[in-house]
Amino acid sequence: MSINLDSKIPAGPLADKWDNYKSDEKLVNPSNKRKFKIIVVGTGLAGASACATLAELGYQVEAFTFHDSPRRAHSIAAQGGINGAKNYRGDGDSVHRLFYDTIKGGDFRSRESNVHRLAQVSVDIIDQMVAQGVPFAREYGGMLDNRSFGGAQVSRTFYARGQTGQQLLLGAYQQMASQVGLGNIKLWNRMELVDVVVVDGQCAGIVTRDLMTGEIISHAAHAVVLATGGYGNAFFLSTNAMACNVTAAWRAHRKGAAFANPCYTQIHPTCIPQSDDFQSKLTLMSESLRNDGRVWVPAVAGDERAPHLIPEAERDYYLERLYPSFGNLAPRDISSRAAKRAVDSGRGVGPLKNGVYLDFADAIGRLGKSVVEERYGNLFEMYARITGEDPYTVPMRIYPASHYTMGGVWVDYELMTTIPGLYAAGEANFSDHGANRLGASALMQGLADGYFVLPYTISNYLAPMLNKAIPDTNHEAFKLAEREVKDRYSRYMSIGGRRSPDYFHREVGKIIWDYCGMERNQTGLEKALSELPALYEEFKTDLRVTGDSESMNQTLEKAGRVDDFFQLGMLMCKDALDREESCGGHFRSEHQTEEGEALRDDDNFAHVSAWEWSGDPTAPILHKENLEYEVVKLQTRSYK
Amino acid sequence: MSHSLKNLKLKIWRQKGPEDKGRFETYDIPEISDEASFLEMLDILNERLITDNTEPVSFDHDCREGICGTCSLMINGQAHGPQRASATCQLHMRTFKSGDEIVIEPWRASAFPIIKDLMVDRSAFDRIIESGGFITAATGGAPDANLIPIPKPVADAAMDSAACIGCGACVAACPNGAANLFTAAKLTHLNLLPQGQAERFKRSEAMVETMDSYFGSCTNHGECEAACPKEISVDVIAMMNSDYRKAKITNRKTLSRT
Amino acid sequence: MAQTLRRGPVSGTAVAQKRKRKPFLVDLYATAVGKKYVMAITGLAMIGFVVVHMLGNLKLFQAETSPGVYPIDAYGDWLRSLLYPALPKYGTLWLLRVGLLGAVLLHVHAAYGLTVMNRKARPVRYQSSRDYQIATFASRSMRWTGIIVLAFIVWHLADLTLGWVNPDFVYGEVYRNVDASLSRIPVAIFYIIANIALGIHLFHGVWSLFQSMGWNNPRFNSWRRSLATGIATAVVVGNVSFPIAVLAGVVSHPSV
């Protein structure tokens, strides 16, 4: 199948595009909506909000989650907040400014029309979530409170303590639950998508595996929405939840959905460093800590003294030294790379020499312990619980970790993938954040897609299909997909090697992190591209899965996910190698300014790289969607 | 910083499936580092079991930072283990001493049937939410977010109870297997807010009665509060009890009008 | 109530269960929360009785007004003719008795219903030992202290109201009957144990009833525990003082 990257951007001035789209789109009459079945895979912010809204409109919705409950999705772990261009502060915020900040934060690698629509609907999201009963922080007058966030000069972030993601997800989940209760949504829990079925070039449904019984079941529908999150766990160690995986997106990719910009991954600068080889995941510490903490490492490599024994003169406060105006508040990608260089130069701290200090001694001296405790008390407590060290007396140790993936399934303005009838929403798609995502924008995008975009764009696709029969699950394409899935899972069971899926995940993650992590270069990426296929061969011959495939088997689930991470990993490296420039989260050491900043190449790389599956994971086919900027002028980001 | 290694004896409940009777099995697990989290300790055990060609222990877990509510486990007779105000995933091995025997059992309640080993099915909680744990506000029709001011103390109190992660520790810890803390936390969150008033009594009646069809009754032991990773107070149960009574009377009046 | 694992999609869970409306009170009583209201209200009535009963009985310690005339006997007479002549003699007393009997029966019935429900909620118990954090001995032994108190009530009525098990019972002579009964050491011990059980029951019950009724207010929440402790202590001290006084000879009727 050839891939057609038609972004379907509506006509008209940027600010009117979405309204124009809404006035021109085809609608489905309310009494006809129940004739359409829509499958939504994933129940995070994007999935739950899409399920709820589509069901309210009257469509038959079937929701799938591989968790025990829709409320477990990893959207729940977002801490900071959600942006909304409400301008409640009167500080000069507007839809246009949020749009511009997002484009600039994304290092001019996102589609203007999509980002503008995101900024437009951000306003409605806040209204909708408050109506759902989300207990956002309030001022004494009873009005909503805001905080400011990196990359913006206005206060537009709404928050609910440090648990904004949780409260938003629960709001969307509850709205969805009410529709399940009313019978408008069929909810399947502990069901994992294992294949996407395409008939005559259109998405016809999905194949799932029941995690409790191992049963392979087909589901037919008029349209399928993938809201299955990002692929940050390709690195093995990341701040993602243990179960986060790329399988749904990858299976769609293999069936014809282009995968866009896989090398755009975001690294969060303040996570707790790895403490042991068996560490299973990394924990993020709020970036707000950098407001008062000072980042430093010993001035010379090999200094093994305890931090309080190192005199001021022998410390290197490298962020303050390199970026005097932003100092410890330098943007995420810049401070992450600076930390990596400090550690790579042998000056890392901690037992494994894999962190840098974030020191609050000055802040405690200046503000007093009680003020510091008031501001960061619960973060300090969390840190102490995990590391066993008291950050009031010993400087914290931090190190960057993979956190979010801007790349994902390629979608057009309607969020439709290159497979007609298959949509991708939330972190699973690539659309809005370009090469770098601003803080508090992930929640915004998930909810925008689910609440305010998909419900409109899906009807445009469905309307012409009224009263046309769709293939049912007895169609040979479903049977074929079921057979392939069964074969794949029985193959995992029967290899009978020596290594567990976790072992391979750890190994593949290490390669991707080392060569396609914070800083990439040609040699490293080529090395990764030669090591990955070899390791993948080993995976196929030396995997061991114990137990059986007819009952709950977490090892088997993991094997399927790791298989897809291998294939994705190769694509990530391939994409990173192909993109001969640095932009946002993608930093190629060959392409940097004299000061070590990212050096974009707008002449050759102002495009989206959308990869087509060729059948061979090492040889994907590249397609380009050129990014045209009508409103924004391309500039160099500077945080000096 | 101590980097001591511990030798531990684990007594873990193994159960092949819902129908199996199940039994404890003992595993010696040497050289566990202080730095390991409790679940990483189980990961290590599972790796070793796979190496020995034995089926690893199934247990629920996901975010490993105490917010998703997927992890469970009764550890030495306490839901989520000995550390207060935290979920199992936030428990670290430095809490234990070398030579300790750690007993790990699944949550037990008839509404939480065991799927396998330490994994239980908590979907009864979803049924409670589906019966009324929401505010009906269809997408698109919401008024401006600042239209209804909400006093800060009210918003804060609602947030306190909305912090529930739905892990089921309250049911597990309750000597009666009651889900009052879970149900009441959601009711209190929604019933305190102005947006929640229209459905307040319908919600209270529906959620309490759905809860009743799955779980035991509250006899005010307070174990749920002690086990709750988010330290939600039993005060929310008092509010639920009061709202349910009002709901029964109000709903009866409303019904007689129709 | 028992849940079995079920696969397949879930839908319409809130509309499927249209149950038939029963009469209001029966409907309310059908749920666990409703039963707890009944436990709390009947409990409150019985607490009122126990406290008044104990206070009334303190008249045992009042000296004879004239030889052979004891204040507690006069108090008994007064109770029997409460609200007379508005109501017939014994009328008020019987109203109270029927009310209390009803309260006891409802309290026991609700407790039984809740116990059955709780057993069903955890048919397979924990196979390892529990490590309770907050639950007190009082809260976990409510069933047993309740049964002891119930047995005691039956004995107590047979002993001092009906006189069936009292060796030297004379109708209306309260002072004499108390002395006659509690001079028997096993009876006195039973009396003491039962009242300690009652105290333990009240220690949890008084606090618990506020929760069950939803009487919760940050202003007085901290007083609930003190009130429970106060009432429980007063009842135990007051009631246990009677058998001790009898055994010590402080309460002694000349003809016993």
Characterise the protein shown here.
The complex is a heterotrimer of chains A (640), B (258) and C (256). Chain A is an alpha+beta fold. Chain A has 17 helices and 20 strands. Chain A has a five-stranded parallel sheet, with helices on both faces. In chain A, strands 12-16-15-13-14 form a five-stranded antiparallel sheet. In chain A, helix 3 (45-57) runs parallel beside helix 6 and helix 4 crosses helix 5 (112-131). The longest helix of chain A has 25 residues, at 554-578. The two termini of chain A are 47 Å apart. Chain B is an alpha+beta fold and 258 residues long. Chain B has two domains: 5-115, Ubiquitin-like (UB roll) (Roll), CATH 3.10.20; 122-257, Alpha-helical ferredoxin (Fumarate Reductase Iron-sulfur Protein, Chain B, domain 2). In chain B, strand 1 and strand 2 (23-33) form a beta hairpin. The longest helix of chain B is centred in the last third of the chain and has 23 residues, at 235-257. Chain B is elongated, with a radius of gyration of 21 Å. The termini of chain B are far apart. Chain C has a single domain (25-122, 136-247), classed as Fumarate reductase/succinate dehydrogenase, transmembrane subunit (3 helical TM bundles of succinate and fumarate reductases). The longest helix of chain C is centred in the middle third of the chain and has 31 residues, at 91-121. At the A-B interface, helix 3, helix 5, helix 6, helix 11 and helix 12 of A face helix 1, helix 2 and helix 3 of B.
What's the topology here?
The complex is a heterotrimer of chains A (640), B (258) and C (256).
Chain A: H1 17-24, H2 30-33, E1 37-41, H3 45-57, E2 60-64, E3 82-83, H4 95-105, H5 112-131, E4 147-148, E5 155-158, H6 164-181, E6 185-188, E7 191-199, E8 202-210, E9 216-220, E10 223-226, H7 247-254, E11 259-260, E12 265-271, E13 294-298, E14 315-316, H8 318-322, H9 332-347, E15 356-359, H10 361-367, H11 369-387, E16 396-405, E17 408-409, E18 422-424, H12 442-462, H13 476-494, H14 501-516, H15 522-542, H16 554-578, H17 602-605, E19 607-612, E20 621-626
Parallel strand pairs in A: 1-2, 1-10, 2-6, 10-18
Antiparallel strand pairs in A: 3-5, 4-5, 7-8, 8-9, 11-17, 11-19, 12-16, 13-14, 13-15, 15-16, 19-20
Helix pairs in contact in A: 3-6, 3-12, 4-5, 5-12, 10-11, 14-15, 14-16, 15-16
Chain B: E1 5-14, E2 23-33, H1 38-51, E3 74-75, E4 78-79, E5 101-105, E6 114-116, E7 119-120, H2 123-132, H3 152-162, H4 169-173, H5 180-192, H6 200-214, H7 223-227, H8 235-257
Parallel strand pairs in B: 1-5
Antiparallel strand pairs in B: 1-2, 3-4, 3-5, 6-7
Chain C: H1 24-30, H2 32-57, H3 71-80, H4 91-121, H5 137-140, H6 142-161, H7 174-182, H8 185-213, H9 221-247
